[in-house]
Amino acid sequence: MCSAPDQNADLPAGTDLSKESVVVGKVTSRGSPVGGAYVRLLDGTGEFTAEVVSSASGDYRFFAAPGTWTVRALSRSGNGQSEVAVGGPGLFTTEVAVA
Fold first, then answer.
1. Per-domain residue ranges of the chain
2. Which end of the chain has the lower number of beta carbons within 10 A, N or C?
3. pTM
4. What is the pLDDT of residues 2-24, one digit of tens each?
C-alpha cells in the first residue's frame, strides 16, 4: 500500500536545510489543530503539485523548489489557504486556518 510519509513536526533524518527547501506548518480551526485535512501544494500558476494528509496535531510538510507557493487545506472543519515564498534552502513555515 502506498501512503504519504508521517506528517509530524520533526524533519526526516538526513534533511539538510542548507541544500533543501522545506515548507512546514499546521492546519488550524479557531486556534485548534485539524488532523486529517487534505493539504495541497500549488505552484505560482495555481497548478497542483503535491498533497499530504495533516497529522493528528495538524502538521504538514512539503519539500519545494524556490518560488511562490499556495498551501490549501480541505477538511471537515472547512477550507483555507495560505501563501508562502520560498527563497532558497531553509525552513519556511505557514499556518493554514480553515473555516
1. 22-97
2. N
3. 0.88
4. 445 555 568 889 999 999 999 99
